[in-house]
Amino acid sequence: MRVIFRRQAVEDIVEAAAWYEARAPGLGDQLIDEILDATGRAQKNPELFHVVYREGNIRRVLTNRFPYRIFFSVVDKTLYVHAVLHGARHDRRWTERL
Question: 61 - beta bridge partners?
Fold first, then answer.
């Protein structure tokens, strides 16, 4: 299955990684690795993750070490990452992206 990160999701990741990197060198890269790991879990078996928004059949996978939620959908054989959102942020921040 192919994975496509939408532009806004990439912006979410870059912003978060920069924030962590400013706190400790290398931490931003660790966040990115964690996001890629979580996305890989979703890619292998997307049905394991429950639908959190019926509109668009949006599912959510959580990172293990960092408090981030990755919102994705699957169309045909492609997994689309719509948003990567810190656990403290409200979902309204990205739902208009759909």
Answer: 70
Q: What is the pTM of this model?
A: 0.91
- Beta carbons of 83 and 8 less than 8 angstroms apart: yes
β-strands 78-86, 2-5: how paired?
parallel
Q: If you classify domain 2-91 with CATH, what class do you get?
A: alpha beta
pLDDT in tens, 15-43: 999 999 999 999 999 999 999 999 999 99
The CA–CA distances, whole Å, from 25 to 20, 31, 77, 84 equal 8, 12, 36, 21
The set of residues, in sequence order, having a beta carbon less than 8 Å from that of 10 and lying 6+ positions away, is none
Q: State the Cα–Cα distance between residues 21 and 61, nearest whole angstrom.
A: 23
Residue-range domain boundaries for the chain: 2-91
